[in-house]
Amino acid sequence: MEKPTVALVYQAVQALYHDPDPAGKERASVWLGELQRSMYAWELADQLLQLKQDVESCYFAAQTMKMKIQMSFFELPPETHIALRDSLLSHIQSLKDLSPIIVTQLALAIADLALQMASWKGCVHTLIEKYSNDVSSMTFLIEILTVLPEEVHSRSLRIGANRRTEIIEDLAYYSSTVVTLLMTCVEKSGSNEKMLIKVFRCLGSWFNLGVLDSNFMANNQLLMVLFQVLQRDETSTNLHEAASDCVCSALYAIENVDTHMPLAQQLFQGVLTLETAYHMAVAREDLDKVLNYCRIFTELCETFLETTVRSPGQGMGDLRTLELLLICAGHPQYEVVEISFNFWYRLGENLYKTNDPALHGIFRPYIQRLLHGLARHCQLDPDHEGIPEDTDDFGEFRMRVSDLVKDVIFLVGSMECFSQLYSTLKEGNPPWEVTEAVLFIMAAIAKSVDPENNPTLTEVLEQVVLLPETVHIAVRYTSIELVGEMSEVVDRNPRFLDPVLNYLMKGLREKTLASVAAKAIHNICSVCRDHMAQHFQGLLDIARALDSFALTTEAAVGLLKGTALVLARLPLEKIAECLSDLCAVQVMALKKLLSQDPRNGKAADPTVWLDRLAVIFRHTNPIVENGQTHPCQKVIQEIWPVLSETLNTHQADNRIVERCCRCLRFAVRCVGKGSASLLQPLVTQALCMPTFQLLEQTNGLRNHPDTVDDLFRLATRFVQRSPITLLSSGIIVHIIQCAIAATTLDHRDANCSVMKFVRDLIHTGVSNDHEDDFELRKQLIGQAMGQHGQQLVTQLMHTCCFCLPPYTLPDVAEVLWEIMVFDRPTFCRWLENALKGLPKETSGGAVTVTHKQLTDFHKQVTSAEECKQVCWAIREFTRLFR
Questions:
Q1: Where does the chain cross the membrane (predicted)?
Q2: Is residue 615 within 8 Å of residue 560, measured between CB atoms?
Q3: Is the Cβ–Cβ distance between 321 and 301 less than 8 Å?
Q4: DSSP-derived secondary structure letter, 390
Q5: pLDDT tens-digit readout, 38-64
Q6: Dist. CA 7–CA 830, nearest whole Å
Q7: Between 20 and 30 A from 136 (CA), which of 119, 498, 559, 793?
Q8: What number of other Cβ atoms are within 10 A of residue 225's Cβ?
């Protein structure tokens, strides 16, 4: 792009906001995006801010400045940094009254500059000294002081651990000065609400960074102001939210209670005074405030969790904190109790680990009251029609209740709770919505009740399958879920199998109950595999007529999974024929699609059938003794031509190629090592097409992570089953190149599959499994590493320093470990070269990594005696670049 004039940029901004034609807006957006990526953006943004024509152009310019400093700071030579700082400070002062969003963008730009500009020492001190005596500058000064701590851990800045440590120490040093400034602001502005909100936001930001001195804060007036605002009934919604956020940040900051004693006591006492204010908010039906109080009470409980478990009822282990949460659980709106779920999970986890019956006894009544409240919250509206929705907000809430109940039920006792719930149904005659909610909670805990000789469980099962069809459809739906969860009981009492299957078949034939019934049948098949073998013909009939039932895709696949699990338990001689029958429907459908003329030049989509075949292959895993022919081999051999033709027909469609790859992968896994010769042509065909398509497209790997995932899982299966076949083929070079390119993908599954492939590939040359081909494998891996080793190590180091999130690092460590085990001396050289290529300082002049840190890291990795030492070293080292 050539350098545009300011007038042209202004015109484009006007078009972006005011052009009535959407195409015009889009053109302006693309052009402005290109401008922001260019070198000219610095100067043009500066000029627009000086012109101060209107809010839109100034906002665009301020946002551009922030983006350039965040993403492209390296473009500026160091001698321009001071001029840029002075220019930004001048802009924020002259534009402070134009619009708050512009002030925020410029404040972010200044904060990001301060974090990266190593020559700007003591920026907090400079700013306070320069602006604190001018009342009119106070709004933007506080804004800068708010965003500065927030940006310290910004992922887009990547200032590195060395610089970050230096900054945090600097901010801690000036933190008391900032708090004093904030208190002065409050005193000067009196009850100015906007200023109070800014002050609380700023204070919260410094609490979040964890740099405030807790002794200094414990005796600070600001803390009193915070609680006064929260106690006052007339506090506005916005101010209430800001004060609540600030208290939550303070509580979070003192999570290590013992090292923050004076502040911890002040906050503890302060929060306990808010109970009256909570009741007032409930009385006024002010849900926003109620939610804020519940957040504060929950944060209080989270912070003092260990104290409460260590010394319940004493000091700051006061159980009034749990009472506050149970008061919130009594609120009619389920959104209120939902806030506290994470605390109850953590409490359950803590108590489970301590495993002290006396301690469990103290907390049991609280959990019982919680469960009682949750059962009430799970009730559908009495006028609800149809089945319970599980995708809306309330459906998701019920699923979270189900998970929570499973996690804390051990404190109350599964059996005791199950029996109590059942007796409320047996003895009373509750309305349908109460019955449904009770069945829902029973379904959540059914699996944790011991099924051995349990008359209550068998009685429940007997009664449920006798439910008349006249009861509310939601009750039938949840009772089917309960039956599915009780499959262990059916397995122990096979006399129930027929009545249970009859009950579920009734559901399967009804449109609204079909999917939940299919899921229950799948559960029964998974648990009662041996008993279900006698019903295999019935399952096969269902599978053949799958599309005549009103099933979701997931439920249909689940039924096939259940059928395949039972199929694997049939006598070996019957498996081939039955598998052939089970696959026939899907194969016929694929053949039919292939024989059709393409509509509008596009062949019909075969993914449904490919997914169904994949699930059958995945779960048909019979026990085959050594020397026996795998019963599935013949069937899969017959299906090959159809899959091959499907691949050819759809080779331009990544989504379908990806589904073919999945199908092949599970077929390879199903028939095992005996399949090498049979599989090679088709797997090579599958690997070639997507690999080349992906590599040739711009951003191909990033845009199709699922294809990458399946492609490398398939390649890994091949490495595990028949490494020589793959290593000897011409395609291996392309696969390794594709893998090296794909190591940068920030996608959990795809990245994991790529790393596993590379690790397993190298491992075949490391593990001497006493098979005849070990020396040949070692030689072939040696050739591949000679060709790609340096590139791979360099790319992995670059990737884990600049592209990947920390959770992927153990996978990277495993790959580096395998390379090192394969050839340690060469790896030492490769790693040294890779480290030499890393940047040693940031564009702002801060040291990223010292020579000592580089040599220490090299030594830690190359002298490691186990993989986890490599992982620790990488984790510490990559922090220097984040």
A1: none
A2: yes
A3: yes
A4: S
A5: 999 999 999 999 999 999 999 999 999
A6: 53
A7: 119
A8: 19
